[in-house]
Design goal:
heterodimer, A: 9 helices, about 85% helix, B: about 270 residues, six-stranded mixed β-sheet, four-stranded antiparallel β-sheet
C-alpha cells in the first residue's frame, strides 16, 4: 500500500493560522459587543467620558477626509463617463450615461472608494494611536483609574465613524455624478437636463438602501479592526508599525468581502428568488 | 467593605502564584501590606515586580493564592467592588503613562471626572492643589510631551493621588531619573505617607531609595519571598542572596554568567 505522505508541516501551519484567525474573529466580535454595551451605558448615564474625543474624531473622520474623498469621487465620475461614453455611443444610448454613472457610484464605487480611503487614512491612525498608548502603558493606566478602555477609546471612534462615513459617501455620490456631468455635458454635448433626468430615473430606493448599509458596515469594519489591532499590540514601536499595516490590509480585504455579500444580498438574491422587495 | 484598621494590613497576599507565558513568576509569595506604612518590594530586574502591582491593582488575576483587600478576595470582587477598589488606590507607572492627547491638568482631572459628579470649578481647584503638592502648579495647560521625565513622573504622582487614595502603588519610581530628581520623588512619596497617611507599595531595585523610605521590606528572588522585615532586619539578614543583592557584588549565589546547557536544563526543569 502506497503510503500517503502527510505534509505535517503544512497541515500544522494551516491549523495554527486557522486557529489564530478564529481567535481574532471571536475577539473582534467581543470588541463589537463590548463597544455596543459601553455605548448603551453612556446613553443610560447620559455621559460619554470621551465626549471631546467624539467631536475630535468626527472632525478627523469627516471634515478632514472630505477634500480627498471629494477629489477622488469627482475623478471617478470623470473616468466612468469617459469609459462608458464610447460603449453607449455604439448603441446610440449616450443619453443614458447619467444613469450609468449614478448607478455605478451609488451602488458600488462611492461606498467602496470612500471606505478604502478612510481605512488608509483614519484606520491607520486609530491603530497607531491606540497601539502606542498600549505600549506606553496608558491603556493600563486607564484601567487602574477605573475607566473602561473600550468605552473611553473605542466607543467614541465607533460612534463618530457610524455617523461620518455615510455622510462622506453622500458627498462622494454627489461629486461623482457631477464629475460624470462635467465630461458628459462639457465634452460630449449631453444636455444637463437629460443627464440629470437619466441619473434620477435610473436610481431606485434599493440603491440608496444598499449604499447606506454598505457605508455603515464598512465603517464598523474599519473602526473595529483598527482599534482591535491597536489594543492587542505588545512590545515596542516596531510592533505598532506592523499592527498598523495589518489593520489597514485586513480592513481592506474584509471591506471588499463584505461588499460582495451585501451586493449579493441586495441585487442577486432578489433576482435569484424572484422577489421584488424594493 | 470593612474599614481598614489604622494599623492592620490593608492588603494581604497569601501564597500568590503566577505564570506568564509558561514562565513561573511567583510561586507561593505571602506578605502583608500594613496600613499607613511604606512597603518596599525589592527584586532583580525581570523578577516580575510590575506584575505584582498589576495583581494587587486587580488588573491581572493570579493563577493561585489570594490577594485579600478589606477581608475579601480580590479575585471575587464584583465589577462595582473592583471599581470602588480602583477609586481607593492610585498607580504610579514606571514610564509615567500620562495621556499624551491631554494636557497636564486634564490628566490629573481624569480620575476625578470618572468617579465624581463635581463641578468643573471644584475639579480645577482640586487639580491645582494636587499639582501644588508635587510642586508643579501652573503647568496645567502644558502637554506631557513638553515636560522632562522627572516632571512627567511628578504629574503622574499627582494623577495617582487625585482622589486621595488610601494606597498608592509605585512601579520603579526612581528608574531613569537623575539622583536629585529621584530624591525629590522619594521625598514626595514619603511626604504623602507621613502627612496624609497614604499607604504605599513601592517596587524597586534602587537600594538606596528603598532604605530611605521603607517601613517594611520584602525581597523577592526567583518567584519566592526570601526575606521580609524592617530595614534593620533586612540589613542584618543572613541570606546570601540578599547579601549579594544589597552589596551589588558580582560574586555570590546569584548566577550572572551561565552556560547554555545549564540554562536549558533550568528551562526544562518543571
Amino acid at each position: 500500500m502506497a503510503a500517503i505522505r502527510v505534509p505535517e508541516r503544512t497541515l500544522g501551519l494551516i491549523g495554527r493560522n486557522g486557529i489564530t484567525l478564529l481567535r481574532h474573529i471571536s475577539s473582534v466580535w467581543w470588541l463589537f459587543v463590548e463597544t455596543l454595551r459601553a455605548l448603551r451605558q453612556a446613553a443610560l448615564t447620559r455621559r460619554l467620558l470621551g465626549e471631546r474625543a467624539l467631536y475630535r474624531q468626527m472632525e478627523e473622520i469627516g471634515v478632514r477626509s472630505l477634500p480627498i474623498i471629494v477629489f477622488i469621487a469627482f475623478l471617478a465620475g470623470l473616468i466612468l463617463a469617459m469609459q462608458t461614453f464610447f460603449q453607449m455611443q455604439r448603441l446610440g444610448a449616450q443619453s443614458l450615461i447619467g444613469g450609468m454613472v449614478a448607478i455605478s457610484l451609488t451602488r458600488e464605487l462611492a461606498p467602496l472608494l470612500t471606505a478604502l480611503i478612510v481605512a488608509g487614512r483614519v484606520g491607520a491612525a486609530f491603530t497607531a494611536e491606540i497601539g502606542s498608548m498600549k505600549v506606553s502603558e496608558e491603556v493600563l493606566a486607564l484601567e487602574t483609574i477605573g475607566i473602561n478602555p473600550i468605552g473611553f477609546l473605542v466607543a467614541p471612534r465607533f460612534l463618530a465613524m457610524t455617523i461620518m462615513l455615510p455622510c462622506l459617501v453622500v458627498f462622494a455620490n454627489v461629486l461623482g455624478i457631477l464629475g460624470g456631468y462635467a465630461i458628459g455635458a462639457g465634452h460630449f454635448d449631453i444636455s444637463a437636463g437629460s443627464y440629470l433626468s437619466s441619473a434620477r430615473d435610473a436610481l431606485a430606493l434599493k440603491d440608496f438602501a444598499s449604499s447606506a448599509v454598505k457605508s455603515v458596515l464598512f465603517g464598523w469594519i474599519i473602526v473595529l479592526l483598527s482599534c482591535y489591532r491597536g489594543l492587542i499590540v505588545e512590545g515596542g514601536p516596531e510592533e505598532v508599525g506592523r499592527s498598523t499595516m495589518e489593520a489597514v490590509v485586513s480592513s481592506m480585504v474584509l471591506i471588499i468581502l463584505v461588499d460582495f455579500f451585501v451586493t449579493g444580498f441586495f441585487y442577486y438574491s432578489f433576482y435569484l428568488f424572484k422577489v421584488e422587495v424594493i | 467593605m470593612a474599614p481598614s484598621a489604622a494599623t492592620g494590613p490593608i492588603i494581604r497576599v497569601e501564597n500568590l502564584a503566577k505564570r506568564l507565558g509558561g514562565r513561573v513568576v511567583y510561586d507561593g509569595v505571602s506578605f502583608d501590606v500594613p496600613a499607613r506604612k511604606i512597603t518596599v518590594v525589592l527584586g532583580l530586574s525581570g523578577e516580575g515586580k510590575s506584575t505584582l502591582l498589576r495583581i494587587l491593582a486587580g488588573t491581572l488575576p493570579p493563577d493561585g493564592g489570594r490577594v485579600i483587600v478589606g477581608g475579601e478576595d480580590l479575585a471575587r470582587f464584583s465589577p462595582e467592588g473592583l471599581r470602588a477598589w480602583r477609586r481607593r488606590m492610585g498607580m504610579l507607572f514606571q514610564a509615567a503613562a500620562l495621556f499624551h492627547s491631554m494636557t497636564v491638568g486634564e490628566n490629573v482631572a481624569l480620575p476625578i471626572l470618572e468617579h465624581t459628579e463635581l463641578d468643573p470649578g471644584v475639579i480645577s481647584l482640586m487639580v491645582r492643589l494636587k499639582l501644588e503638592l508635587v510642586g508643579l502648579s501652573g503647568f496645567e495647560h502644558l502637554r506631557p510631551g513638553q515636560l522632562s521625565g522627572g516632571m512627567q513622573k511628578r504629574v503622574a504622582l499627582a494623577r495617582a493621588i487625585a482622589l486621595d487614595p488610601e494606597v498608592i502603588f509605585c512601579d520603579e519610581p526612581t528608574a531613569g531619573l537623575d539622583p536629585i530628581v529621584a530624591g525629590v520623588i522619594v521625598k514626595l512619596i514619603m511626604d504623602l505617607n507621613r502627612r496624609l497617611g497614604i499607604t504605599a507599595v513601592v517596587v524597586t531595585h534602587d537600594i538606596e531609595a528603598a532604605f530611605r523610605m521603607a517601613d517594611q521590606m520584602v525581597m523577592l528572588y526567583r518567584g519566592r519571598m526570601i526575606a521580609c522585615g524592617s530595614p534593620e532586619e533586612i540589613r542584618a539578614h543572613p541570606d546570601p542572596v540578599l547579601r549579594q543583592f544589597l552589596s551589588g557584588s558580582p560574586e555570590g549565589p546569584i548566577p550572572m554568567r551561565r552556560s547554555g546547557e545549564e540554562f536549558l536544563a533550568d528551562l526544562l526543569k518543571v
